Amino acid sequence: MAETRDLWWAAGRMAFSVAENDEWRNQRWTESLRRSATLLEPVWPKTYSDGPFMHALPTVALLLYAGPFDDDPEFVPVADIVTALTPHLANPAGPPLKDTVRVGLIERRHDLDDDSPLSSLVRQLTTHQPALALPPTSPEPAGADDWSGGTLMGAAAEWAHPALAGHYLPHIGA
Fold first, then answer.
1. Residue 150: beta bridge partners?
2. Is 3 exposed, middle or buried, given 0-12, 13-18 or 19+ CB atoms closer than 10 A?
3. CB-hemisphere CA count at 13 Å for 143?
4. The overall pTM is greater than 0.85
5. Which helix (H) or strand (E) holds 65?
6. 80-98 pLDDT, tens per residue?
7. Burial of 115 (0-12, 13-18, 19+ CB in 10 A)
8. Closest CA to 110 of 98, 99, 122
């Protein structure tokens, strides 16, 4: 229960204004966060406090907000979200998720070089981080101390893809 409250608390903290005097973009961001938290709630880890899942909420929300979907965030099919999270599985030559999100944000007239909360969030999730020294093998899932390198967005998408697919799409490919 506490983990679910933490998920929704994080969603509330990220419900900041993304565009001054633009109700449509602010509303879409809020709806994207709400849909992201709603989708992630049933698959949110109940026993771990750290790991790649920590960044799944903003990753899925950014995908819903800026991704290639024609529908409002609440109506985007889960199968489309799962496919868009790891585009290299559908098309190895396609752009990575971070590029898709950046292009979508720029199309929505966001300046990703400013110091706004949205730009800061995107930079945090898409900046490449070097690998950390891995501790001895453990039965615990990977956490911040076990970072293998890459972007937080990439790690979150790699976690969210099977979690969402397994929960919402169990009969696909069966």
1. 129
2. middle
3. 12
4. yes
5. helix 56-66
6. 999 999 988 878 888 999 9
7. exposed
8. 122
State pLDDT tens for residues 30-56: 999 999 999 999 999 988 777 889 999
CA distance 62 to 18: 11
User: At 157, which amino acid appears?
Assistant: A
Per the listing, tokens 């400013």 go with: 114
Rounded to whole angstroms, the Cα distance separating 141 from 52 reads 9
Q: What is the pLDDT of the chain when averaged over all its residues?
A: 88
Token pair, residue 5, equals 């409250």
Who contacts 151 (Cβ-Cβ below 8 Å, separation ≥6)?
98, 125, 126, 127, 128, 129
Distances (CA, A) of 18 to 14, 62, 71: 10, 11, 19
Q: Are 109 and 169 in contact (CB under 8 A)?
A: no
What angle is formed at CA 118 by the lines to CA 151 and CA 13, rounded to 5 degrees?
A: 95
Would you say how long the chain is, in residues?
A: 174
The alpha carbon of 134 is separated from its chain's Cα centroid by a whole number of angstroms, namely 24
Amino acid at 2: A
Q: Which of 95, 34, 42 is nearest to 61 (CA)?
A: 34
Contact 122, 102 (CB under 8 A): yes
